């Protein structure tokens, strides 16, 4: 199959904001008279939506988590996130991001964002980075009831890309996902999509155990080479 689209994770791939998310999650717990445990962020939150992360953190502490309660916490965190980004002069994107986007555009590959982050946060960052026009589709945490490692977000992105570009006839085997966490890699693979893992959140050797390919930097992603590999007979890469 030919490579026809590139699907990007957001936190940890486009923006280097995981430390900020950890700070805001821990602050929420403190405001709720709960004690944060720093190691829990990587265990329960990295690569997952705020909804899934907060639910698990609260249930672990014996809280009854209603929909209204959870929505209120998510809204408070989103407001604090926007306030924090407003005072940052330069959004901390990852090295090589614009190079990779340029490569994809030069060979006319549609791009999408598939993330557990809420839409307002994604839009805020992409607008600040002046990248909004390059992503034909955004699937955010608001759009689906589940979180990675569930593949629903990736499958929805493919559906929306096909709606946007009917002649594309996109299938999971035509796509490449760019991920930085194990939950994200599992989600893409469960959708039947081959994955490049970028060693932004975990060491190279740990990512290598899960992703089809691993790079240190986004600029190391060779789309021409991926195109050649996907064009081989029955590569079955997403199942490896």
Description:
There is one protein chain. With 240 residues, the protein is α/β, with parallel strands linked by helices. It folds into two domains: 5-16 and 92-239, 3-Layer(aba) Sandwich (Rossmann fold); 18-86, Orthogonal Bundle (DNA polymerase, domain 1). It is 45% helix and 10% strand. The protein has ten helices and six strands. The protein has helices at 18-31, 38-45, 50-60, 67-86, 97-106, 119-128, 152-164, 182-190, 204-207, 223-230; strands at residues 5-8, 111-114, 137-139, 175-179, 194-198, 213-215. A six-stranded parallel sheet has the order 3-2-1-4-5-6. The longest helix is centred in the first third of the chain and has 20 residues, at 67-86. The two termini are 16 Å apart.
Strand order of the largest sheet: 3-2-1-4-5-6
What profile does the largest beta sheet have? 6 strands, parallel
CATH superfamily of the largest domain, by name, is HAD superfamily/HAD-like
Q: How many helices does DSSP assign?
A: 10
CATH topology of the largest domain: Rossmann fold
Oligomer: single chain
| Averaged pLDDT | 95
How would the global form be characterised?
globular
Q: Briefly, what is this?
A:
The protein is built from ten helices and six strands. The protein has 240 residues and is an alpha/beta fold.
């Amino acid at each position: 199959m030919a490579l026809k689209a590139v699907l990007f994770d957001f936190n940890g791939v486009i923006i280097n904001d995981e430390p900020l998310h950890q700070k805001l999650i821990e602050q929420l717990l403190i405001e709720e008279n709960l004690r944060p445990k720093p190691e829990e962020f990587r265990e329960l939150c990295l690569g997952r939506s705020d909804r899934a992360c907060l639910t698990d953190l609260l249930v672990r502490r014996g809280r009854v988590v209603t929909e209204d309660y959870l929505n209120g916490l998510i809204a408070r965190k989103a407001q604090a996130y926007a306030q924090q980004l407003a005072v940052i002069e330069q959004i901390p994107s990852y090295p090589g991001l614009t190079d990779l986007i340029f490569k994809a555009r030069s060979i006319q590959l549609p791009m999408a964002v598939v993330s557990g982050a809420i839409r307002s946060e994604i839009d805020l960052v992409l607008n600040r980075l002046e990248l909004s026009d390059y992503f034909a589709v955004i699937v955010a945490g608001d759009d689906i009831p589940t979180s990675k490692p569930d593949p629903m977000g990736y499958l929805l992105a493919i559906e929306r890309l096909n709606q946007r570009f009917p002649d594309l006839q996109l299938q999971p085997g035509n796509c490449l996902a760019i991920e930085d966490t194990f939950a994200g890699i599992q989600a893409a693979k469960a959708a039947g999509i081959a994955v490049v893992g970028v060693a932004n959140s975990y060491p190279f050797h740990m990512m290598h155990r899960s992703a089809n390919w691993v790079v240190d930097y986004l600029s190391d992603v060779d789309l021409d080479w991926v195109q050649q590999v996907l064009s081989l007979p029955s590569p079955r890469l997403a199942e490896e």
